[in-house]
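Reminder: ligand-aware prediction takes two inputs, not one.
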Amino acid sequence: MDNKEIVVSGIRSTGNLHLGNYFGALRNFVKMQNDYDCRFFIADLHALTTNPDPKELHTSVKSIVTEYLAAGIDPEKATIFVQSDVPEVSELYLLLNMHVGIGELMRTASFKDKARKALGIKADADNDDNIENEIIGADSNKRVNAGLLTYPTLMAVDILIQKAHKVPVGKDQEQHLELTRRFARRFNSFYNTDLFPEPENYNFGKAAVKIPGLDGSGKMGKSEGNCLYLIDEDKVLRKKVMRAVTDEGPKEPNSPVSQPVQNLFSLMELTSAPETVQQFKDAYSDCSIRYGDLKKQLAEDILNITRPIRERIMELRDNDEYIGKVLRQGAERARYYASQTLKEAREVMGIRKFY
Ligand code: TRP
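Here is what comes back for the chain with tryptophan:
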């Protein structure tokens, strides 16, 4: 792994992985593992920021490792680990926080979103201005926890502690990466050091793909409840696809395509053969399309991708011995690098022993 550029990325352990995770992240991780020194982890500490049920958190960590492996991440090529297995991350998180402003954290889009959710405030521009007051005044049941605020510090540490050069993340994480670069620069200049390299976003060919949901609205996401999961059985997945929102169908040739139908075409572009996509697009243009046929085709083409992964998940998931071995080896490697960086950080900050 020497001389290769270092790549770091993580997925939060909340539930199972869905098609959005697969096309947005996992598929690219698998491609990168041959050319880079990849360190992929399960962000269980980040998951804690939304106070999950402990049992669910535990289950999810295990499912996600299994899903990483089943999707083709090879532990001989890439380092796979659980974030909390690297305690150095938690210590550097404390240290780095001393150089992070609460103002800049409060202005982060993801924080505002989550704070609004915790407080039960709808997203609209008018509320935006006084969300700070809402946060300060909130009673303890509707609190916005400090972990949520410092989420970007923790993410920056994941990246900086490994001295990563490249971070493959989707559009929604770009602001976090920008903060990471800012924190790195600030730390380096405050201590007059070059300890932390500034990581860049790694883009795959086309600009970051957005995976739509099947409910006609925005993206596929756990909190949206519109996910097709990698572990969905054939029957379940077919049913979800058949229920996808559409419209009344084109009334005249070359009608514009509505958002829900566009979403189906977008999924099809990711999963079906180009000729198949074209065939349905032509059928849309000349009004002969039958959405039922499109959905049937789409479900089969998605299953062609997810079924082999699901079968591997089934094979792996009770193999605690193998998964344990992968994670122990991964943690050992990750800690090897992390402890080095932490040592250097403590040193430049003046935390050194004279006794
Ligand atoms: N915040 C990322 C997400 O929600 C997950 C994550 C945590 C991450 N630490 C990271 C991604 C470090 C890349 C690098 O998707």
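The domain at 6-100+150-210+319-349 is CATH 3.40.50.620 (Rossmann fold). The two ends are 37 Å apart (CA to CA). We will return to this case in the review session.
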